[in-house]
Structure formats: C-alpha cells, structure tokens
Amino acid sequence: MHHDPSPRTERLNSWLEIDAAAHAENLRIARHLIGPDVELSAVVKANAYGHGWRTIATNAIEAGADSFCVHALDEALALRNAGFSQDILVMGHVPLARLEEATAADLRLMLTNLETLETLAEITARRGSPTRVHLKLETGTYRHGVDEAGLETMLEVFHEHPWVHLEGAYTHFADIEDTTDHSYAAAQLARFEAFCARIRAAGHPLLKRHAACSAALLVFPDTHFDMVRLGISQYGFWPSKETYLSYRERHPGEPAELRPVLSWKTRVSQIKEAPAGAFVGYGRSYQTTRASRLAILPIGYSDGYDRRLSNQSWVLIRGRRAPVRGRVCMNLLIVDVTDIPDVELEDEVVLLGRQGERDITAEQLAALIGTIHYEVTTRIRADLPRLNR
Length: 389
Ligand SMILES: *Cc1c(COP(=O)(O)O)cnc(C)c1O
Description:
Layout: E1 14-18, H1 20-34, E2 39-43, H2 45-49, H3 53-62, E3 67-70, H4 73-81, E4 88-90, H5 99-104, E5 108-111, H6 114-127, E6 131-136, H7 148-160, E7 164-170, H8 183-201, E8 208-212, H9 214-219, E9 227-230, H10 241-250, E10 262-267, E11 270-274, E12 279-280, E13 286-287, E14 292-297, E15 314-317, E16 320-323, E17 333-336, E18 348-355, E19 358-360, H11 362-369, H12 373-378, E20 386-388
Parallel strand pairs: 1-20, 2-3, 2-9, 3-4, 4-5, 5-6, 6-7, 7-8, 8-9
Antiparallel strand pairs: 1-10, 10-18, 11-14, 12-13, 14-17, 15-16, 15-18, 18-19
Helix pairs in contact: 1-3
C-alpha cells in the first residue's frame, strides 16, 4: 500500500505532494512503448530527482516497474534497508574499500575499472558467492565507459574469475535529448551493438543489454534491448522540447500526456503593507512603485528555491500569480499580493505545480535561471516532507 499521506499539512511550513496516479500513468506510457518483456528500471538517483526516493520507489513498483537504478552505493543500501528486494543497479563508482558491502547487498554494479573487477574477484572467491556486474561501454559520450582495448583486457580477466558474473552491458547517449537529429545516437548505438556482439562471442550470454534513458525510450525503439532506464519521464517531464517534437512526429495522433508528479507548497507566514517607494529585501534590489501588500513565505535558497529567481519568478496564491520581490533569502521569500484580494495568514502557496487554473512548471523556473528542469527538482531540500496524494 501507499505510504500514509498524513502528517497533516496544517503543521507544515513547506512540503511536497506526490501525485501517485500521475506517476503510475507516466510509467504506463513507458510500459506501453517497451512491451511486457523489456525490464522497466526506475531511475531513483538524487532522491528520485528530488521527489523523495522512498515514496517514489514504493509507487513505482506498485505501478509496474521491475527494478531500480541509482548512482551511489548508499542510495542502493537505503533501498535495501527499506525492504526493497528488487534488482538495483549502482551506476556510479563504488569505492574499492566498499565493494564488500556492495557484494553483501546483492546489487548490480557498474564496471569500468580493472581494479574493481580484481577486487570483486578476490571478495567473491573468498565469500564463495557470485556478484553481478554491468559493463559500461564507451560509445561516444566520454563519461564512464570502457573502450575497445579496455574491453579486450576485461574479457581476458573475466575468464579467470567465474564468481564475477557479467550480467549486463550498457551505454548512455550523449546527444539524444538536445536535438531532433539522431544520427550521433545512431552511431553510438551501432558501436554498442558491436561491443555486445564481441562480449557474447567471448562466451558471456549477456542477459541485460541496455542503452535507453527516457528520451531514447520515447523516440528511439531500437534502443530498448532488454531493459530501459527510466528517469525524467517517470516524473512527468519531457526530457526536452526536442524529445517532445520527435515523439509527436513519430506518434502522430497518439495522445502523449506526461503528467508532472510533484507539487511544492508553502504557506503565507506574514502579510504586510508597504508604501510606494519602499525597498524590499537584502540589497534593496526591488522598490515598490505603489502602495503594496506583501506576503512573506517561509522558504528560501537553503530549501532549494534558487537565489537566481530573485525578482524573476512568481508563486500561486488563491489561484493567482504573485511575483517574487527582492532577493530570495536563505529561508524566506517575499511576494507581491497587492492584486490578489483576501490573502490570509497561512494561505496555501504553490511554488511548483498547479493551483486552480494556473500552474508553475519546473521548465519555467529552469528557463529563468538558465538551467534544466532536472536541476530544479533535484535541488529541493531532501528533508522537506513528501506526501503521497
Ligand atoms: C540519469 C541516468 C538515466 C536516466 O536519464 P533520464 O533522461 O532522466 O531518463 C539513464 N542512464 C544513466 C546512465 C543515467 O545516469
């Protein structure tokens, strides 16, 4: 069942709400595209892109996800400790000194270094139990990944260490969400397939080949292989405008409604009048042009509300836009409610999400500060309550 949704919000100054139905629908769209036999792995790294890993992991499994991908060993151990028994791929480096811990938790580990392979060989032989690795391959992104020469060396070493089981091989595209031209991705895909053929020829059945992030899953069916790694679109975001356009082109007439899963809320903590010409906030960066009513909100850059949104963004109160005035403080935000009648102490305020007829999207905030929506949500403070609704 879902987590209990109710520490009551009256007791909270700021919280996030997770729309479990929207999340399930986004996963359903992915499942529809890949079919029943491809493993659907929910990427829950970075606190599930800021959505809260525990709630998202629970909902994802309930909605039909098969497994998880994380970045760090500690994220995987947290899932294990919370009782998740599904497969978990750790896609980041595990310090050699912690491989014993990783092995004991029965994880899938990214492999790119010979040192990791040799340490795992030593540990698994001593324990007398196998461990699973997924070889990350260099196809043109030049992040983590083993090149051709590295692969040949690895394949030789694998022969000596039967306890280290080469379960998977994967790669990650450099340029799939930033363009509607997928020729670079196609070249990476061809390299990936050649790598996989080479690994199989060396005697490894390679049960799990995977290459697809959200964008590849949505617009590039040849990338689905045995498993997909579903990050951003699970949370109801298109990876980019380009991905959305490519998707529309390839699926004419088909509805594609990804629904944002997260809303971020706070409440009014003071209302005050300021005369015309009053300076607002640190550095006096805003001066009122008329007698104004201001609302103070108990949220700031330490909560993940980016300081570069100072004098730029807006929030929703009583279904209307209230512009941010002056600088975003560490724990406070000041907004103008002069044109919104009847605002009261503790009125609910939407920082991200929908209120009435209006909404504020992570894409909008990202555009204001020159970044991507991924960064906007992942930086929301991890210890704010996440409530399932
Ligand atoms: C984060 C990540 C993903 C998920 O990407 P989305 O664009 O969010 O779907 C997939 N694969 C790897 C290796 C990643 O690091």
